[in-house]
Amino acid sequence: PQGATSDYLAGLNPEQREAVETTEGPVLVLAGAGTGKTRVLTTRLAHILATGRAKPWELLVVTFTNKAAREMRERIGHLIGPSAEGLRWLGTFHSVAAQILRRHAELVGLKSSFTILDTDDQERLLKQLLEAANIDTKRFTPKSLAHMIDHWKNRGWTPDKLPPGEDFANGKGPALYAAYQARLATLNACDFGDLLLHNITILSKHADLAEEYRRRFRYILVDEYQDTNVAQYLWLRLLTSSTGNVCCVGDDDQSIYGWRGAEVDNILRFERDFPGAKVIRLERNYRSTKHILGAASALIAANQDRLGKTLWTEDDSGDKVRVRGVWDGEAEARLIADEIETARKQGMNYKDMAVLVRASFQMRAFEERFLMLAIPYVVIGGPRFFERAEIRDAHAYLRLIQSEDDDLAFERIVNTPKRGIGDTSVQKILHIARENGVSAMRAVRHLITTDELQARTRTPLANFVRDLDRWRDLMAMGTPHWQVTETLLDESGYTAMQKADRTSGQTRLDNLKELTQSMQSFETLQAYLEHVSLVMDLERRDENADGSGSVQIMTLHGAKGLEFPLVFLPGWEEGVFPSQRSIDEKGVKGLEEERRLAYVGVTRAKQDARISFAANRMVYGRWTSQLPSRFVDELPLAHVEPQSDTGYYGASSGMKEAKSRWDEAPSFGGGYSSPGWKRAQTYTAAQTPKPAYARRAVIEGEGRLIATADPKAASGWSR
Ligand code: ATP
Ligand code: MG
């Protein structure tokens, strides 16, 4: 197969090629951003297939997002053609784990039709449990309990393995966790963390099964290895034999999920776990210009806790990274929107531009501005389509059709649209169901034949059961699931209910239309529902749109692994980025993670990165005067150009605007003539914002933003 291989191997540098061709034994590729780690992984996969070392279904390939999995599948297709089909085990940790769990669900007391709860369901369930335990849900919220449980699951702790000291609500943690797991089992459901946790339980209890998988997965490939958490690590270990052909690629400088239990140590542990592992370092960056790389490298160098590595590029084209101060968040949105328009006029596609924010609250200003200027944009993983009430309702119907055990789905729609089945009756049904250890639907089937419920409740319930049975039959008879969905929305009265709502009914109907359309690309209802659960996962929101032809707005976390010619990085202010939480935290751990996030952000850019910060910002309903991020100070002038002649701050027009607002608020006193160090402060939205100045930035006569030297650091912004 030598002739066939030369194609896809061509163009790799020697180290990359080594990583691709060392197919046997453990390999760790440890390298900085844009050095081709993902490309190596994809090529390696192609190489293994093209040389006939394994069949597609003998490969386990783990990517960080569903989108990355899809892209990898496509690229392999391009590289080696149809033999790439059958890559059954290529996906995120969760999607592969879900597949495995479906096959052995009974080993953890589930049926293979189990549902995967979304956060909404999960919190509703936890609320019930908290109330049942007489715990004040204002003080100990379902959300915080969900968080805690997720934390435990990320570390691979089942209720019986919870270490002493792990707790919630004064000693009730372990019991609540156990009760939650028990409830999930009766609902024939699991949450996200369970996908891996149940896998771990199954694989560690059933050695024969684990052995079978270890034999099946002849090659294992893992991207973004630096962000695996303990549970994911344990799972991988169970599936890999010690002499295994496992290749992990990662970058310790891009570890940004510590807050979710990711362990950079997994990288360091690799060599211990796999003695004799080959460690390959890649140093040439193929993505970015030298200014972008120079800025990013200087930034990350401020972190103490890192392995350290060299990065270089041959690309010395392009401008310095621009850093701009603006008046407030709106001005920032105006500036960036204008620059997007300009870039578009110069021939750049919208889809080649991205706005990467630290926190989702920053998105609104951009969305509004883009809407106003008719700049097409997508919020990747933003306010989620699947989280809209009407979509959840439709899903609840479908889930109930798929599995009658799904009491949460039952509860959600038994009286939506209104059928005259009151809350009291619903609670009674749930109570009876629980007493008898059956699902609510089972209880209902029984109750409509007795007189335990009043006749006026019984009749609509009987109709409800009859309807559900009919829709299920329709599907069983081969009517496509999306058509059944349309039918059930009409027949249940859901469509009519929305039509009657003149404020937002039409939007909801449009969304439902979008839903049935998107369902058409799934073969079975189960496949569709599984897809939905997977994309609902918190940080893996990347399925909403393909984004072609639109500016991409997303969080920095969501941008990992991606690249764009032009990247905007707004909101580089203390308290926003780095986040207030990381500043308040003891020690530098949180700050270092924020800095890695900044490094991830800058290194997404291929040709052009533009950083900005605002002097004022509305944060949670309060105007706050902002200081530029410490990360701004860490950027070297050799690669960065401070700018303020943008007309948004400092320059004449922006200055005037700012000045007039300033004059309207005499109570604050002061003025532009006294620049200098000011501490950040908050005041209410009703008050006019007070101009604040950069810690080290001062306004000069012409309104240019320059920087004064920090007494502690002579480098950086002084000039
Ligand atoms: P990140 O750490 O951000 O995930 P990465 O190390 O995975 O980055 P890739 O995304 O694989 O890097 O590669 C970055 C860019 O460089 C891609 O556009 C890729 O196609 C390109 N690239 C990688 N290797 C080569 C090469 N040998 N020749 C030309 N282009 C390359
Ligand atoms: Mg990558």
Any overview of this molecule?
By secondary structure, this protein is α/β, with parallel strands linked by helices. Helices cover 45% and strands 13% of the residues. The protein is built from 28 helices and 19 strands. Strands 9, 10, 11, 12, 13, 14, 15, 16 and 17 form a 9-stranded mixed β-sheet that branches. A 6-stranded parallel β-sheet has the order 3-2-6-7-1-8, with helices on both faces. 46% of the residues are buried. The N terminus and C terminus are likely disordered. The chain binds adenosine-5'-triphosphate and magnesium ion. The site of adenosine-5'-triphosphate has 19 residues, from helix 3. Its EC number is 5.6.2.4.
Write the layout of secondary structure elements.
Elements: H1 2-9, H2 14-21, E1 27-31, H3 37-50, E2 59-63, H4 66-80, E3 90-92, H5 93-104, E4 115-116, H6 119-132, H7 142-154, H8 173-186, E5 189-190, H9 192-205, H10 207-216, E6 219-222, H11 230-239, E7 246-250, H12 265-273, E8 278-282, H13 290-300, E9 321-328, H14 329-345, E10 353-357, H15 363-373, E11 377-379, H16 389-402, H17 407-413, H18 423-435, H19 440-447, H20 455-476, H21 481-491, H22 494-500, H23 505-519, H24 525-535, E12 551-555, E13 564-569, H25 580-584, H26 589-602, E14 605-619, E15 622-625, H27 630-633, E16 640-643, H28 652-663, E17 682-684, E18 697-699, E19 705-707
Parallel strand pairs: 1-7, 1-8, 2-3, 2-6, 4-5, 6-7, 9-14, 9-16, 10-12, 10-13, 11-12, 13-14
Antiparallel strand pairs: 14-15, 15-17, 18-19
Helix pairs in contact: 1-3, 2-3, 3-4, 5-9, 6-7, 6-8, 7-9, 9-10, 9-11, 13-26, 14-15, 16-17, 16-20, 18-19, 19-20, 20-21, 21-23, 22-23
This protein binds adenosine-5'-triphosphate and magnesium ion.
The site of adenosine-5'-triphosphate has 19 residues, from helix 3.
